[in-house]
Amino acid sequence: MGNLSRIQRICDANGISGFEDEVVATIRNEAEGLGTFQEDSLRNLYLYGHGQDTNIPTVLLDAHTDEVGFMVKAIRDNGMLEFIPIGGWVTTNIPAHRVRVQTATGKVVTGIIGSKPPHYMSEAERKSTPEISSLFIDIGCSSRDEVLALGVDIASPVIPEAQCIYNEENGLLFGKAFDCRLGCSTIIDVLEDLKDENLKVNLVAGFASQEEVGCRGAQLTARKVKPDVAICFEGSPADDTFLPAYQQQTKVGKGPMLRFIDSRMITNPRFQQFALEMAQKEGIPVQKGVRDGGATNASALHLAEQGIPTIVIGIPVRYAHTHWGVSSMVDIDASIALARAILTNLDKAVIDAF
Predict the structure, then answer these.
(1) What's 95's DSSP letter?
(2) By C-alpha distance, which of 188, 161, 269 is closest to 2?
(3) Which letter does DSSP use for residue 130 in this model?
(4) Distance CA 269, CA 129 (A)
(5) Do residues 214 and 48 make contact, with C-beta atoms less than 8 angstroms apart?
(6) DSSP string for residues in 15-39
(7) Which residue, of 83, 251, 252, 273, is most buried by count of CB atoms within 10 Å of its CB?
(8) What burial letters (b/e) apply to 280-314, b meaning 16+ CB within 10 Å?
(9) What is the DSSP track for 234-278?
(10) CB count, 10 Å around CB of 210?
């Protein structure tokens, strides 16, 4: 079962791409006692499960720690902050939301992304999409000096403001950074679940940085761990609120999505089939996904070394890359169960056949 309080703590942590320190510290605390930690200069966090054996294969359990956000680009004379996006945003999803502007000392200043009231808009403005360059963050200051006095400056990271909440009636989570803090939390749950199992593979968790800006952290984790296979846990954009039923492949509450292809990877068909067979054997609901867009850390992992067979276990997330996502504990629990089924049945002979 997914650990709800853990999910909330990890998702609520501040950590846009390149500034994942708070997330890493939170994960370290949550996974204490499950193995040996290492870090690198890109702030990738590695967790080597107990009992590493050089005579058996190694499985990398990957999830990225960063979230989409913004960075202060300039400070206007009137105290408003201009910014650039970090990660993929749609401009219409940005205005009129709360944000956390983080200072160099870690202090958080609350702000609002300004939105021009309709009273002041021309007819053309009402019908057009604003450019990000025209948007600004209001932190309640009226001058540049006031901004600097708060510790906010050029290059201050800006994090979406949203606290993870849970609806017990329908089992749904609402919050930020589900892509892919849900994966981070799920990996810890998997390691806890399997800590007393006599596995025929080594488990190494790679909590990778900077996925949202080009899967940068995963390029390092693959080179360091040199796994025989990898499982990428991802918060995958749900499609059940805008596609016709026959096209839906990532529905909230219907189990994790196993993607066959996206813009940067064709999934290893043999490993994928193995995962599907394990799901069927254990009665775990899964969804099959064929995507012509998007990408995950798997794009970097599967091309590393001499090629690493990699699959993606995607936890459906509605409204990904916005301030608020919606996900289901049912899908998280099914992802944990699927990972367990795969890992308890992997051995050298199975992996060699991939």
Answers:
(1) T
(2) 188
(3) P
(4) 41
(5) no
(6) -BTT--HHHHHHHHHHTTTSEEEEE
(7) 83
(8) eeeebebbebebeebbbbbbbbbebeeebbbbbbb
(9) EEEEP-TTTS-GGG--S-TTS--EEEEE-SS-B--HHHHHHHHHH
(10) 26
Measured distance CA(37)–CA(46) in Å, rounded: 6
Is 110 in a helix, a strand, or coil?
strand
Which pTM value belongs to this model? Answer: 0.97
| pLDDT over threshold 90, residue 34 | yes
Give me the active site residues, please: 211
Q: Tens of pLDDT along 67-104?
A: 999 999 999 999 999 999 999 999 999 999 999 999 99
Three-state SS at 340: helix
Rounded to 10 deg, the angle between the 21-30 and 4-12 helix axes is 160
Amino acid at 177: A
The fold of the 69-160 domain, in CATH, is Elongation Factor Tu (Ef-tu); domain 3 (2.40.30)
Quick one: angle between helices 178-194 and 329-343, nearest 10? Answer: 50
